[in-house]
Amino acid sequence: MSENKNQQNVSLLGLVALTVTTVIGAGVFNLPRDLASSVAPGPAFVALVIASIAFAIFVYCLKYLQDNYPELDAGIFSFPEQGFGKFIGFLSCTGYWLSIVVGNVSLGVLSVSSLGYFIPIFRGGNTVPALILLSILLWVFYFICASGAKSASLVNTVIWIAKMIPIIIFIAMLVLAFKPDLLTSGLWENAFAAEGGPVSLGSQISTAMASTIWVYVGIEGALIYSARAKNKSDASKAIVTAYIVIAVVYLLIILLSFGALSQAEVAGMEVPALGGILEAVVGKWGAVLMNFGIMLSAAGCWFGCCLLAGEILDVAAKHEIVPDFFGKENEVGQPINSLLVSTCIQQVFFITIIVNESIYNVMALFASSTMLVPYFFVSLTMIKQSIKLEGKFTVNTVMGIISTIAMAYLMYSTGWQYVIITALLFAPCILVYYIARKKAGKEFITNSEKIIVLVIVALALLSLFFIFNGTIDLTTM
After folding, report:
1. Does the reported pTM lie above 0.70?
2. Bridge-partner residues for 10, per DSSP?
């Protein structure tokens, strides 16, 4: 990466803000309702604790690798590259970028549709006025990101503080309204068991895991921006700090929600659920505050992910796994081409939502599980590199194994259809890798990597076959 005084100037607070903003998105505002609709408070809390422990181990792996390889920027793909070669690094980069860009579209629509609570013409996020506002915000974000890492980090930090205020007020008000007897009276018994909901403790926890296992996705945010940190060591510190903040917020929200209202009451809340819960405790202003909060939260997450989408391609270009076009930086060291391409793709998707929403829905379906690819490879890298660095099987190797199993479970939980459909996105992207390697005068793939390419292409063809013969129905997934 070229030297520029504006490149490495993001503070520890800025990195923490970036990570928290990208993880605590809109999902937290409906998490209590999502859990209450299927399981009792006790199993819901246990499932969240299990997910928190699993991602605590993943965070440990990220910190270990960052501390041992501080020279590697954007570790979510450069760590797998270090462990398994350029092509695995490319797959990790591609999976991450695809998930971020397509996910940004959902965040944008959600932020504008949340504004519909106050201004009806934006309700739903798929109207012409909504498209105009989405487009304006998208390009405002682009110009802020392009203006420099310091200014972009400052804007992100302000958004983070603003979005956390409603959540802090929610927690404070529910602490005052907390009723221990209400929480314990139906702690383990599912209120919807008679309607076909899971009954046993194990089945309830398993059901809840489907919602809780996703809540920490994005925890690697500080690593992606590590090249622009004031101090390299701040990246691993930021991940740990952000994780603690996020875990405390999630655990408090679930515990306090079930301590203020019954499972049935929480499950019956309209979206955003936190708005209904706070309204039940303090009155109408609670719903207004939470709707404002979800709007800020979704917009903040969208902005933070815009930064990450540009940054990861910039670093990948310098690793010669994507064309050097994506590595071009402007006068303040920002990845101008990467940001521009990512922004244009989002703009196209916003338009398709208005013209034909099913096009975007299919693409969102394809990209929903691509984030799991780099998570899985990072965990595998932890196993390999801990043995290499320490010369033996240690507790760090065990942590890598546990993280790998957790990420494999995440993939499994999405369903086999999602796994093979992911290959449809990766297969054509291999051409981009070929162009980059050829232009750099480097080897395309090794003999062992040829096997991986053949598997990806085979899965892509198999998924197409299943789609055309009706085995996989995209409209019902």
Report:
1. yes
2. 229
